[in-house]
Amino acid sequence: MASHDPEARLSHLQSADGSATFSHAGYTVVGAVNGPIEVQRRDELPEEAVVDVIVRPAAGVGGTRERHLESLLQSTLRQIILINNFPRTLIQVTLQVTVSPENEYVNAKLSQAATNLPILPTLIQTALLALLSAAIPLTATVTAAVLAIVADDGASTIIVDPTAREIQVSRSLHVFAFTSRDELLLNESEGEFTMQEWDNAFATAQRQCCPAPTSDDVDMEGGSQADLKNFTRSTLETKTASDLYWK
Amino acid sequence: MPREAEPSLNEKAFFLQALQDGHRLDGRKFEQFRQLDLQFGDQYGVADVTLGKTRVLAKVSAEVTVPYPDRPFDGIFTITTELSPMASPAFEVNRPTEQEVLLSRLLEKTVRRSNALDTESLCLIAGQKVWSIRVDLHVLSHDGNLMDASCLAVVAALRHFRKPDTSMEGETLTIYTPAEREPVPLSWLHTPLCITFSFYGDEGEMTLVDTTLLEEQLKVSSCTISLNKHGEICQVAKLGGTPVDAVSLVQCASIALQKVKELSTLLDQKLAEDSKRRNKGGLLAELSAENAR
């Protein structure tokens, strides 16, 4: 089983303006950002930058699944990029999925219309790191989490970062993204759930994505869940420190 | 979309003068490859090739489909190459450039038409069910010599790949999941690899291997030779450009053989390392239901 610890590498592709590889919960995504660059005449917006997101699967050509993810990402990223600073330009985000977790108990089919929500947090996080690496001005950073609600004997439990197997048996899936100012930015759900369950999931996601700003790391009740907000910060701190280091 | 920046006249003059004096910009010899690294993923059939600053990732996947009606005994084998804006902003989505078409065409000729993969072994039920093997090639970073890096990645990924095990009992075909039976490797016949030569000078008298993007942009012509380590040439492609002396082409072929031997050794070694890493405690042989032939 792939580790739950997030890992990231920044600015490792030479021709893109910014790039990042991010792996978390069994997924690995390589992201590249080019921008602000020239935009095609027909897409041009007179007062703001066009954000173009391209999601490419590891195997097979992209279909409706990828288009759906692209549209979700595009609307999310438009909220955090300062698009008004770059009128008549294009900011192009390319996300290449390289590893996605496999279910040992099922032979995967390429063309099946599988669920696409579990990969969304990794895509958002990769896009964010790539944007930061490309030094695109942002209003805030973003942290995302995926939760599965599994029902056993009437009682429903919430699993953060579920595995492929857990997703298969889950009743509903929820993806939440919060900005660094703890505002809800994205909310996607699928499956069957009650309002009460959604509220619980929301509270769990909020605890997960917006940890209280304590300096001590004692309060990790859930134990192994990664704190992505601090992860983004520390990754960039390390990167900046090594970039500014005078040899 | 922005066009790829072309080297300036100064850069060109400097580069050519350096070549005349026997130097390359990065200090390599004319027949020297850049630092080559080959890594396999945790899953079967993923190969990541890094050649200097060029990085290519190949992923193999398999599924069961219906064969083409005119070839009922052959499995389906496809190689897909798509250059994304990740490699360079000059590449557009859904609009293949000439380079991309040439790349996929050459890989097709090298790996598919040379029968490196035995497509008949992919047949499950004649005319009804065959394996469809698909290789997706992702160019993550483009700094010249995509051809050689891609070919190595595709071949490495295919040799690393394991497809689900199957069995036939009477009329019923069973495909086992990885949890039930250890997946089995593809039936692989030989290992063809590409070596690309770029020619410089008015009559193409200088030859370089493994060119960087800048060197590639300044070449007068190029030639790609695909062969295996036994010296069997699968294809030679020299698409236009300045004519090159026959003698230098023969020389290229012998350099290519030497390089392919080196690359094959590296590939075998990496595959052996990977299988050793997976085979902890030597239990993999017991898991496999495949009979030794």
TrEMBL record, chain A:
The keyword rRNA processing applies. Residues 7-137, 152-207 form the Exoribonuclease phosphorolytic domain. GO terms for cellular component: cytoplasmic exosome (RNase complex); nuclear exosome (RNase complex); nucleolus. It is found in: Nucleus. One of its GO terms (molecular function) is RNA binding. InterPro entries: ExoRNase_PH_dom1 (IPR001247), ExoRNase_PH_dom2 (IPR015847), ExoRNase_PH_dom2_sf (IPR036345), PNPase/RNase_PH_dom_sf (IPR027408), Ribosomal_Su5_D2-typ_SF (IPR020568), RNase_PH (IPR050080). Keywords: Exosome, Nucleus, rRNA processing. It comes from the Eukaryota. One of its GO terms (biological process) is rRNA processing. PANTHER family: EXOSOME COMPLEX COMPONENT, EXOSOME COMPLEX COMPONENT RRP46. Belongs to the RNase PH family. This is Uncharacterized protein. It comes from Neoarthrinium moseri.
From TrEMBL, chain B:
Its main location: cytoplasm. Residues 32-164, 191-258 form the Exoribonuclease phosphorolytic domain. Pfam families: RNase_PH, RNase_PH_C. SUPFAM superfamilies: Ribonuclease PH domain 2-like, Ribosomal protein S5 domain 2-like. Keywords: Cytoplasm, Exosome, Nucleus, RNA-binding, rRNA processing. Belongs to the RNase PH family. This is Exosome complex component RRP45. The keyword Cytoplasm applies. Gene3D superfamilies: GHMP Kinase, N-terminal domain. InterPro entries: ExoRNase_PH_dom1 (IPR001247), ExoRNase_PH_dom2 (IPR015847), ExoRNase_PH_dom2_sf (IPR036345), Exosome_comp_Rrp42_subfam (IPR050590), PNPase/RNase_PH_dom_sf (IPR027408), Ribosomal_Su5_D2-typ_SF (IPR020568), Rrp45 (IPR033100). PANTHER family: EXOSOME COMPLEX COMPONENT RRP45, EXOSOME COMPLEX EXONUCLEASE RIBOSOMAL RNA PROCESSING PROTEIN. One of its GO terms (cellular component) is nucleolus. It is found in: Cytoplasm; Nucleus, Nucleolus. The keyword Electron transport does not apply. One of its GO terms (biological process) is rRNA catabolic process. One of its GO terms (molecular function) is mRNA 3'-UTR AU-rich region binding.
